Amino acid sequence: MPEPSSTSPLRFTGHKYLTQRLVLSTLTGRPIRISGIRSSSPTQPGLAPHEVSFLRLLDTITNGTIIEFSYTGTTVVYKPGLITGSAAGYGAASHGGVLRHELPKECNRGISWFLIPLCMLAPFSKQQLNIVFTGPGVITSATQTGDVSVDTVRTAILPLYTQFGIQNNIELRILRRSCSGPGGRGGGGEVQLVFGHQVRLPKTLHLLNAGRVKKVRGVAYATGVAASNNARMIEAARGVLNQFADTYIFSDVSSAPLLPSEKGPPGVKRKVGIGFGISLVAESSTGAVYSADVASPPSGGEPPEDIGRQCAYQLLEVISKGGCVSSIGANTVLTLMAMGSEDVGRLQLGRDVVGSEDILMLGRDLRGFGASGWGLRDADDGEGDIVVSVVGRGVGNVGRKIA
Amino acid sequence: AQKMHGRRRPYRTAELARLMYDESLTPAQILRRWRGDQNAGATDMDEENEAEEDEFFRKAKDDTASDDYEDRAIPQYDYRVLERKWTEEENLEDLRQRFASANLSSGANA
């Protein structure tokens, strides 16, 4: 619920957890002031291109947001507005209800870096969210900067929303694939997110049984390189995983996106975002998902067998950490739980998942935004997991409020 | 499972709950304190912590490299360590309990 904007902004420092804080600020309506963003860096002080782009994205899907930068970009004051989604009259009307967001070519983060926080906002939007990410900076694959691929978002993050009763009309279309371009920057892919299920409050969640992994699914993708790379990745990954579970990995081959070249004569296009990668998702009998992602580095030099095997081992590692949600989805689930109705939700997480910097910082940030602290206790089943109890704040959807 | 969880037993949950909201510590410090001095195993998290310490001293000269340490969704794994871990029969047997096909012999659904 937005408090009067006259309240003093919450203060944060540093560029870490930027999206998380912006999302919490938008959901709770509390203005924030983030200072010291890479202020000690002599070469690249202030916000990076992808961070500026994320702020613009927030501005696009909200109404009444005020963003103020300092001269050097090391300080940002963010006063959130209402999340309107693709409502008519806010730029979407001219494109048939679809918002377009263009990413600059300097962007070195995968599209999932934008999608995952955006999906946290979407259920609380006033109208459905229908947005196309386009431009020379869209990287759909996993990246060297640690982002998951768009396939993982679709198969491992979006299903988490089902647990909260948010499941209708949600779609993530991959219109054009792309791996990271030269130097890990830029790609040229295209992705459309339709998030059409808006709720007043997400359901209170009780996830205490992780179940057992019953199948592994995956997508191997190759853009602009031979399809045999996919086959080789799949074979190596299956070699590791077949002894555990039913494994099936899809193969998707596409040509590399063409972008106008900066050098050379105008009109000449060049291929960017060439590479290959693999995304694996393991699903348990109770619906818990674990995912792993590896993509070829932009510099090349990794054989596809290694990529496939690394991804399989990463998946085993994630499964071994246990819990009902892996560390990739934990932020999403915990944030939605904190926004839920004023009731205690419980979530069993692996010990190493709770004991990670990201989750600890999320807990602290949530409390900073006025949510109550988490309760931690050991799980009963002797697996060594931790049960996190989260009291919802009843924030919910301001745009859909009745009475 | 016993080997893995036996190692983690010192990581008490109540301890983490207590440390978590201590605003005088950074998350990295909390984790180090929570784990105690058990860094012998050198898990990937420890490496990340070390990397961050390194970053502190390196920041002035090599900023592009330190950018890699921001907000990763996938932690940086040392794949050689992982490969060694997940080719050891003992670890594989432990992990098999997490799969629905636990009672099948290996390679049953090839």
UniProtKB/TrEMBL annotation, chain A:
UniProt keyword annotations, A-Z: Nucleus, Ribosome biogenesis
For this UniProt entry, what's an example GO CC term?
Answer: nucleolus
Taxonomic superkingdom: Eukaryota
Q: Which Gene3D superfamilies match?
A: RNA 3'-terminal phosphate cyclase domain, RNA 3'-terminal phosphate cyclase, insert domain
| Subcellular compartments | Nucleus, Nucleolus
Keyword match Nucleus: yes
The protein here is known as RNA 3'-terminal phosphate cyclase family protein
